[in-house]
Write a structure and sequence with these properties.
This protein has 239 residues and is of the alpha/beta class. It has a single domain, classed as Rossmann fold. Helix content is 40%, strand content 18%. A six-stranded parallel β-sheet has the order 1-10-7-4-2-3, sandwiched between helices. Strands 8-5-6-9 form a four-stranded mixed β-sheet, sandwiched between helices. A hairpin with a 4-residue loop joins strand 5 and strand 6. The protein is globular. The two termini are 27 Å apart. The N terminus is likely disordered. The structure holds iron/sulfur cluster (SF4). The site of iron/sulfur cluster has 14 residues, from helix 8 and helix 9.
Length: 239
Amino acid sequence: MKREVIGFRRPEGFLRANRERGYRVMDKNQASWNKKAAIGIIENLEKRRMAGSFAESCAEALEEVVAMIPEGACVYRCGSVTSTAIGLWKRLEAMGKVKVIDPYLPGLSREESLKLRHEGFGADIMISSCNAITLDGRLVNLDGLGNRVAAMMFGPQKVILVVGINKVCADLDSAIARVKLYAAPVNAIRLGLDTACAHDGICHDCRSPQRICNMWSVIEGQQVPGRIHVKLVGENFGY
Ligand code: SF4
């Protein structure tokens, strides 16, 4: 069945690149659901003193996130396939007007990477993603080391989370299930870890030293209004 492509602002090059990367273009019914779900989630985030906004495509999300970063800001890069997939880090590097604390730079020793993760707590802005977000606006994450969830909870002054629509879950139980059934095993495979899930795709509640399921966080709200901003993207991105 031929799919109708939504969004007249999407250049053909962007659509082609998405197809080549394996991302599926939404049909008009999915795009409509995405927007309706996002509007509801944003309303619920605001009730929790967080902020949210919706971008139909990764191209729009990229522009909108870049516009949120003031010149001269110090930005902490946390683990996020989504922010990498939309091209954010290459874009910030090309701009050259922000300082990026990047513990993922090639060639860093473990000690150097850890030092940068600590430094990131003092950044102006942290950019990452969530493992799942509920319809009522709760942010669900699971870390191996804990630097991402810790910084998200109480670190940089501003937290920007770029979240693909594929991470929307009905409630807390389904969000936790999503993380354990899918996000954690896929990330273990991505990172080439020696964990049971990396071998067969299923969580075995392992005790591997490389286990990435050590620190859960469920963020239900903020005391500092708008400190956390969730940029929902109407496309499937990240795990
Ligand atoms: S607990 Fe272990 S097996 Fe289960 S998802 Fe996490 S790393 Fe994989």
